[in-house]
Specification:
By secondary structure, the protein is α+β, with helices and mostly antiparallel strands. It has two domains: 15-150, no CATH class; 159-248, no CATH class. It is built from nine helices and eight strands. It has helices spanning 15-29, 46-54, 67-72, 74-87, 134-142, 146-158, 169-193, 204-212, 236-248; strands spanning 36-39, 58-62, 91-99, 108-117, 120-121, 124-128, 216-220, 225-229. The strands form two sheets. Strands 1, 2, 3, 4, 5 and 6 form a six-stranded mixed beta sheet that branches. It has a two-stranded antiparallel ribbon with strand order 7-8. The radius of gyration is 24 Å and the shape is elongated.
Length: 249
């Protein structure tokens, strides 16, 4: 889901309201499903975290570096630097601390990744209420959010989500919703009709140019619609497989 905000407002504005709608919709269909809210430091707001805790939603979000949290993690950051100087190899150490900003309602668990390499120190902080180990949560769950950047790129580059050419908010917001719907349709096409084919993980642009934006003759009568492809079409076998799978699902 894409939601436009004014450039002079908090990037996390209305996040909890949208999250509430999504959680209610998911639990209406799957009452026992575990929901994990994952985001970067732009979504680290204690009111959002408190809402998650009250509604049994797990979360794992980035925490921006600041002097207080770095001071609490200083021994691990210094240890990573010492180990690097001894071995000459990149060091990554993981631990947890309890941290809460002065404006928060309470301290929470923060995963510390103390990293040191030839490029100097590179500490990272992740706030979570998940029970697994520090390294597992950071490597397997939090870092996996980077793949979402590729999904956003698909929408911006292939499905024109980046176009906000109207002077009014609603037309631009509507374009974002259409782009999100288009991505959902392409994802459904990959999952249902392109499984175990060479285009199973293809981008929307590749799918459009390969399967949709091709020359054909469409013949329609009262009983059926026939699509006549050129005999020279290089993807006609794949097109036939996709059509058959969609017709049977």
């Amino acid at each position: 889901m894409s939601y436009l905000r004014r450039s002079n407002s908090d990037p996390a504005r209305h996040t909890w309201a949208i999250l509430s709608l999504l959680v209610k919709a998911l639990r209406r269909h799957w009452p026992k499903v575990e929901i994990v809210f994952r985001g970067d430091s732009g979504f680290c707001r204690w009111k959002i975290l408190r809402w998650c805790e009250r509604h049994d939603v797990r979360y794992i979000v980035g925490l921006a570096k600041n002097a207080r949290v770095k001071a609490q993690a200083a021994q691990w950051i210094d240890l990573a630097e010492s180990l690097y100087e001894l071995t000459g190899k990149k060091q990554r150490l993981f631990t947890s601390i309890r941290y809460g900003a002065l404006s928060w309602d309470k301290p929470r668990r923060v995963i510390v990744k103390a990293e040191h390499s030839r490029l100097s120190a590179n500490p990272r902080f992740v706030l979570t209420n998940l029970p697994q180990t520090d390294q597992y949560l950071y490597n397997k769950l939090y870092c996996a959010r980077g793949d979402m950047e590729n999904r956003i790129k698909d929408q911006q580059l292939d499905l024109f989500a980046g176009r906000t050419s109207s002077h009014r908010w609603w037309p631009n917001q509507f374009r974002q919703l259409l782009s999100g719907l288009a991505y959902t349709l392409f994802e459904g096409l990959r999952r249902r009709a392109l499984l175990n084919t060479r285009l199973a993980t293809a981008s929307p642009n590749t799918l459009r140019l390969t399967l949709l934006r091709i020359g054909a003759v469409v013949v329609r009568n009262t009983r059926r619609i026939r699509i006549l492809l050129s005999s020279a079409c290089p993807h006609q076998d794949l097109f036939r497989i996709v059509a058959q799978r969609l017709n049977t699902t």
